[in-house]
Design goal:
Blueprint: H1 9-17, E1 27-37, E2 40-51, E3 56-59, H2 66-73, E4 80-85, E5 88-89, H3 95-100, E6 103-106, H4 118-127, H5 132-136, H6 144-152, H7 168-181, E7 186-190, H8 198-214, E8 216-220, H9 224-230, E9 233-238, E10 241-246, H10 248-252, H11 255-262
Parallel strand pairs: 3-8, 3-9, 6-7, 7-8
Antiparallel strand pairs: 1-2, 1-4, 4-5, 9-10
Bound molecules: adenosine-5'-triphosphate and magnesium ion (MG).
Adenosine-5'-triphosphate binds next to strand 2 and helix 2.
């Protein structure tokens, strides 16, 4: 008699509970992306593909073009080439349309409404895809997507606290939560752990892992230790180009990557913690 078939219950669950075609084409595909400011080429022909479930870190020295690339993807900087989300071309669309297409980003400084509670912030973000009447109607409990986001970002217990009173880390989590309720399928997070305590970093890493299983996530980061702990894969940018890409161990052992980081020792926010240091 043959062995009983092993069923991967988690995988099966994923398939059965996936909303129809919602996440079917979830990948970000950047081809030949170029951004030029007054004759200076900040992003110089970048190719990058990120798929759902692959928590991708984007690293590189100051001025490498990381933020500019995120700006181009989200419509804040004018770029040429191609940026596709599934079958949708994003380049040339305005930031609002890009956000509606399911692309969300955070900035280094969290932009939450300080006077409003955590719940109200999430409600407003969720409302961007809901009518005003629904938004104003008094409800006994928050909508399910808001409750789910509160849970995911770990802020359920402070739902009624004004966002301005949150700790630095909690504000960043709230901002991520706002992207979740906006139903962003692609999240581009620009240095989410900058200024966080060690405990907040760990919480954030776990949060990114949870989100990364469901969505396409790119984390711009300077902290090599944080990257090593949580990244599935990493892309290194230098002078507007992709210098290296692949699994963390492989990339941090790459001689060109080490060179770039050793050449930037004065770099304030990140330390070089590559596995293979060059002998001096
Ligand atoms: N609006 C702009 N006008 C002109 N030059 C710009 C503009 N924005 C960025 N740059 C330049 O483009 C280059 C890339 O900047 P960018 O902010 O994308 O780097 P980064 O990789 O995000 O760096 P950091 O790690 O310091 O955040 C830099 O040389 C920067 O001075
Ligand atoms: Mg930047």
């Amino acid at each position: 008699m043959s062995e009983p078939v092993q069923v991967d219950v988690d995988a099966l669950q994923d398939v059965l509970t996936a909303p129809d075609a919602a996440f079917q084409h979830d990948y970000l595909e950047i081809r030949g992306l170029k951004v030029v400011f007054d004759g200076f080429t900040a992003v110089d022909g970048v190719d990058l593909t990120v798929t759902r479930g692959d928590l991708r870190f984007l690293i590189g020295p100051n001025g490498a073009g990381k933020t500019t690339m995120v700006d181009a993807v989200t419509g804040l900087a004018k770029g040429s080439g191609s940026v596709r989300f599934g079958s949708t071309e994003l380049l040339g669309k305005n930031p609002t349309r890009i956000a509606r297409a399911g692309i969300g980003r955070t900035f280094q400084t969290a932009s939450v409404f300080g006077e409003l509670t955590v719940l109200q912030n999430l409600d407003i973000a969720a409302g961007s895809s809901r009518g005003m009447r629904t938004l104003l109607r008094r409800r006994k409990s928050p909508p399910s997507e808001v409750e789910a986001a509160l849970e995911t970002i770990g802020l359920t217990r402070v739902a009624q606290v004004p966002a301005g009173a949150l700790a630095h880390g909690q504000k960043q989590w709230l901002e991520i939560g706002m992207l979740l309720v906006q139903n962003a399928h692609v999240l581009l997070l620009d240095e989410p752990v900058a200024g966080m305590s060690q405990a907040e970093r760990e919480e954030t890493g776990l949060l990114l892992r949870r989100i990364g299983q469901q969505r396409t996530v790119v984390v711009v980061e300077h902290d090599m230790e944080f990257m090593r702990t949580y990244a599935d894969s990493v892309t290194v940018m230098h002078q507007g180009r992709v210098l290296a890409e692949g699994p963390v161990d492989q990339v941090t052992a790459d001689a060109r990557v080490i060179e770039v980081y050793l050449g930037n020792r004065s770099h304030g926010r990140g330390s070089v913690q590559t596995s293979a240091r060059r002998d001096s």
